[in-house]
């Protein structure tokens, strides 16, 4: 069973070898290594190919076998027709595989002869596979095969294609080394692994269907995609057969696997090339047709449709070229010409009369060439028409000379030659070949053919190097910048869009340039736009008007095709720019993510640090109140208190950067914020720096915390001052701008809409791009030691982002720096600034205050301060003590002083439980890090009273009194 299956596998693969030229070398080796005689025949018994086994049993070489009849070789040279028992004759009759065992005296033995038909996609007989197996000594052969089982396994393991066996559950039972190598594994790594381990989800779904077919006894050949060990993809051609045990139960499958990744890449490249050729085909300035060998039109360009008076390609495609396009007067001639073309002859400059759907018959100059997909049959015939109706009619009317027709034919041949170059030659060689045709036409020794790029410069890929040795340039392509063109003839021809001919020596040539005796410069114009230039020079005689006319005709035919190729190049450049923009956006996103991560860290540190600072500030302030100024501990405690205040400011900066501080937002006019802070800014920056304001004439209403915006202005102004050691100018400007969808795409975090723009610029030393990228990072500073913490701009960044805005920096070394701040505009009304209202003074009280705080040191400090100033204090560590503390307290509780972040329940949840017992109680929240419990995006919820940690004695007393009185 294994031997027969192997033979059938090899027979099926023979059909595949015939089609896959790219792997022909490997398959031919297997073909010739098979011990059976295999011959490929055509329908009349002629031998087209044979393997070496045939050579061995017949005694004839492969070259001697080709062309002979099979019955001459297998039976006798004297036999003139197939013998009666010939299986091929029966196969030709039935169309099925036919096998006969016969005595062949010529070969001295008994042989099993099998003939298999091979059909094409149209069910026409294409080839016959003739296989002859010597059965004379079959028992000896079988015995020999049993003895050489190890050699057979060695053959399988050394095959250049993969062999893969699986059991009934799709687990791998065997792979040969080649199969493992293709997937990047060793055979040991693959054996026992499930088939699905080498597929993605799409492949698994496809394989499920294929496995079901194998269980039904169906063999198949198909493409598949496997995942290699390195996660790369391998495209494979698989031929799979099921295996059944002695009870005809499915026992697994075996597959031969061929790596066709290179072929697939080649096919993709071919598709791209065909798309490019299709674009050239459509943009040809001639009528162009692709015609099937049968004579049906498979494709045509728009010019052909228009010339023939139709509206759509569908009016022509699928119809007979001769009957649809040509006049009845030309049918016979067209048929002869196309038959010649099918037989390999190129057709050039043939005049045929064509039909039109809407006008009188026309005349066309025809060029046809067969395009082959193999060595035997043409794939299609490429035909071009030049409409010469007017010329033919003019010739008839004026009885013009035969020379005019020859000239038209010559021009067409030049156009066809150039069109063929544009269609078939790559960019690096196209310009040189077109220039060669132009020089040949113009009878000139030297020439230039170049195009205008997107910058307006002239790019010259070729300069007739083969003969112009004196002027060779180091690179293949030379660029003439537009601003350095000068005033010679070719720049003049481009600027004035006209041909310039000079039949005398040129005086405007660069030093060392070869002398120019006479020349013509022609602009290449497409749709009133110059896309390139052609210049020819040093013809042995003067250039004539006929030369100019012929060259202008050639240039006019070049223009649309050259423009099409240039547009294709521009599309590639656009894709490159899009990719560069994508990388820039990715860098911005990475930076934003990094800033967010540092912010979260800063917020967490500030939470715990604020509790410790509250202890230091509170107790140091309480002790200082009890000490006289002459006390020896007064000065050390004062320094401790001052250091704690500085640490409090640092913590506030960290919270601002991380956008975790609590904002008191009101609707304000941005112009008013700037003018109200002008005097203080002037004192900070000094007299040697001029402060200029350019404010919007209209109010710019934004929802903002005025104190925080003033902090941003202060930070930016101080940085600007430090960048101008010798004085300078700081300019502050406000205006209204609209952020578009395009702005949002290039600036992460931007929401389209109206914004107030605040710009602050200086005339300082500026910064380089590497510094600008990092200026908003915390602790990054360009100032010297002890001159900055690196938190000023980071804090400003956090404040603006917390306001829902954006801040961007623009700077160049020596040109100063500009910061642009975008804040969303609002339609709300302006609210009064609470900072101007009278603040309640901290005084003693007699109210009952419940302190809810899980940190004992902070709870004890607040209790001691409030007790000292006359308040009655209750303490609650967590929700578990609620019944014991609040439930058993009989008197009223006037105020709950609660931390926001608590274990088990947060502050507002605990307060809700307290109000079930004491509904009269008010609440004052305190925290160094709110976690959005009493805020929304850092903005304090309406009606909530809040004490920011770390707090001082006076700030605690003031907030308690304010909460009790409101």
Describe this structure in words.
The structure is a single chain. The protein is α+β, with helices and mostly antiparallel strands. It contains 31 helices and 35 strands. The longest helix is centred in the middle third of the chain and has 82 residues, at 545-626. Mean pLDDT is 80; it is low at 834-840.
Shape: flat
Helix count equals 31
The radius of gyration computed from the alpha-carbon positions, rounded to a whole number of angstroms, is 46 Å
For the biggest sheet, the summary is: 6 strands, antiparallel
Cross-sheet strand order for the largest sheet: 18-17-16-21-20-19
Number-wise, the strands total 35
- The share of residues in helices is 40-55%
In whole angstroms, the N-to-C terminal distance is 100 Å
SSE class? alpha+beta
Average pLDDT for all residues: 80
List low-pLDDT spans. Answer: 834-840
Beta-strand percentage? 15-25%
């Amino acid at each position: 069973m294994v031997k027969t299956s192997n033979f059938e596998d090899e027979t099926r693969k023979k059909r595949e070898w015939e089609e896959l030229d790219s792997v022909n070398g490997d398959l031919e080796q297997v073909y010739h290594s098979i011990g059976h005689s295999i011959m490929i025949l055509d329908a009349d018994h002629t031998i087209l190919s044979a393997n070496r086994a045939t050579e061995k049993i017949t005694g004839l070489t492969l070259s001697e076998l080709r062309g002979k009849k099979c019955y001459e070789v297998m039976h006798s040279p004297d036999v003139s027709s197939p013998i009666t028992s010939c299986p091929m004759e029966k196969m030709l009759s039935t169309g099925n595989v036919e096998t006969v065992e016969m005595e062949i005296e010529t070969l001295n033995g008994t042989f099993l002869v099998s003939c298999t038909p091979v059909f094409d996609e149209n069910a026409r007989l294409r080839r016959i596979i003739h296989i002859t197996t010597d059965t004379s000594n079959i028992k000896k052969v079988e015995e020999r095969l049993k003895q050489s089982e190890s050699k057979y396994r060695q053959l399988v393991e050394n095959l250049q294609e993969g062999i893969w066996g699986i059991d009934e559950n799709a687990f791998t039972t065997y792979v040969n080394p080649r199969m493992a190598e293709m997937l990047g594994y060793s055979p040991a790594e693959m054996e026992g692994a499930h088939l699905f381990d080498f597929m993605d989800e799409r492949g698994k779904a496809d394989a499920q269907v294929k496995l079901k077919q194998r269980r039904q006894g169906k063999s198949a050949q198909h493409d598949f995609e496997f995942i290699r060990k390195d996660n790369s993809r391998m495209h494979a051609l698989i031929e799979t057969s099921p295996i059944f045990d002695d009870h005809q139960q499915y026992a697994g499958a075996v597959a031969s696997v061929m790596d066709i990744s290179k072929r697939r890449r080649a096919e993709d490249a071919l598709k791209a090339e065909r798309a490019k050729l299709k674009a050239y085909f459509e943009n040809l300035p001639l009528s162009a047709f692709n015609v099937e060998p049968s004579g049906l039109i498979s494709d045509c360009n728009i010019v052909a449709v228009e010339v023939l008076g139709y509206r759509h390609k569908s009016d022509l495609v699928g119809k007979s070229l001769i009957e649809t396009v040509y006049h009845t007067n030309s049918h016979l001639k067209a048929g002869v010409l196309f038959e010649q073309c099918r037989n390999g002859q190129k057709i050039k400059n043939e005049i045929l009369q064509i039909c039109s759907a809407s006008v009188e018959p026309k005349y066309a100059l025809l060029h046809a060439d067969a395009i082959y997909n193999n060595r035997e049959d043409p794939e299609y015939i490429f035909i071009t028409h030049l409409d010469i109706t007017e010329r033919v009619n003019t010739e008839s009317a004026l009885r013009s000379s035969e020379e005019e027709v020859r000239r038209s034919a010559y021009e067409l041949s030049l156009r066809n030659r150039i069109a063929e170059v544009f269609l078939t030659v790559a960019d690096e060689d196209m310009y040189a070949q077109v220039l060669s045709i132009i020089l040949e036409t113009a009878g000139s020794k030297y020439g230039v053919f170049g195009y205008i790029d997107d910058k307006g410069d002239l790019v010259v890929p070729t300069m007739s190097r083969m003969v112009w040795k004196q002027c060779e340039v180091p690179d293949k392509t030379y660029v003439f910048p537009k601003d350095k063109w000068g005033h010679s003839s070719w720049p003049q021809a481009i600027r004035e869009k006209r041909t310039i001919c000079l039949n005398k020596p040129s005086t405007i040539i660069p030093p060392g340039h070869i002398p120019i005796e006479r020349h013509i410069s022609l602009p290449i114009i497409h749709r009133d736009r110059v896309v390139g230039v052609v210049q020819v020079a040093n013809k042995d005689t003067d250039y004539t008007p006929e030369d100019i006319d012929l060259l202008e005709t050639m240039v006019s035919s070049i223009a649309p095709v050259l423009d099409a190729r240039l547009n294709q190049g521009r599309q590639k450049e656009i894709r490159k720019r899009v990719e560069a923009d994508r990388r820039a956006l990715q860098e911005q996103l990475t930076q934003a993510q990094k800033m967010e991560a540092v912010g979260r860290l800063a917020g967490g540190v500030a939470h715990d640090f604020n509790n410790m600072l509250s202890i230091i500030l509170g107790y140091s302030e309480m002790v200082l109140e009890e000490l006289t100024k002459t006390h020896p501990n007064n000065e050390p405690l004062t320094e401790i208190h001052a250091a704690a205040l500085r640490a409090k400011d640092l913590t506030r900066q960290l919270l601002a950067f991380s956008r975790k501080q609590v904002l008191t937002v009101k609707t304000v006019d941005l112009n008013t914020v700037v003018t109200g802070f002008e005097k203080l800014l002037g004192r900070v920056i000094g007299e040697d720096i001029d402060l200029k304001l350019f404010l919007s004439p209209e109010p710019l209403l934004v929802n903002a915390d005025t104190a925080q915006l003033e902090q941003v202005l202060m930070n930016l102004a101080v940085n600007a001052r430090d960048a101008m050691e010798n004085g300078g100018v700081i300019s502050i400007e406000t205006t209204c701008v609209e952020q578009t969808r395009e702005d949002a795409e290039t600036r992460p975090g931007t929401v389209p809409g109206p914004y107030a723009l605040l710009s602050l610029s200086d005339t300082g030393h500026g910064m380089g791009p590497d510094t600008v990228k990092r200026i908003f990072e915390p602790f990054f500073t360009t100032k010297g030691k002890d001159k900055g913490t690196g938190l000023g701009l980071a804090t400003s960044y956090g404040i603006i982002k917390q306001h829902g805005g954006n801040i961007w920096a623009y700077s160049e070394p020596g040109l100063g720096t500009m910061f642009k701040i975008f804040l969303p505009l609002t339609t709300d009304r302006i609210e009064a600034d609470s900072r101007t209202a009278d603040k309640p003074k901290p005084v003693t009280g007699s109210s009952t205050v419940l302190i809810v705080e899980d940190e004992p040191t902070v709870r004890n400090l607040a209790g001691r301060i409030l007790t000292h100033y006359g308040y009655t204090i209750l303490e609650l560590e967590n929700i578990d003590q609620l019944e014991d503390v609040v439930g058993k307290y009989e008197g009223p509780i006037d105020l709950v002083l609660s931390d926001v972040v608590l274990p088990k329940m947060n502050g507002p949840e605990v307060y809700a439980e307290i109000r079930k017992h004491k509904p009269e109680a008010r609440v004052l929240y305190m925290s160094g890090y709110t976690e959005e419990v009493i805020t929304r995006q850092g903005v304090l919820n309406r009606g909530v009273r809040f004490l920011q940690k770390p707090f001082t004695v006076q700030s605690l007393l003031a907030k308690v009194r304010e909460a009790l009185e409101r």
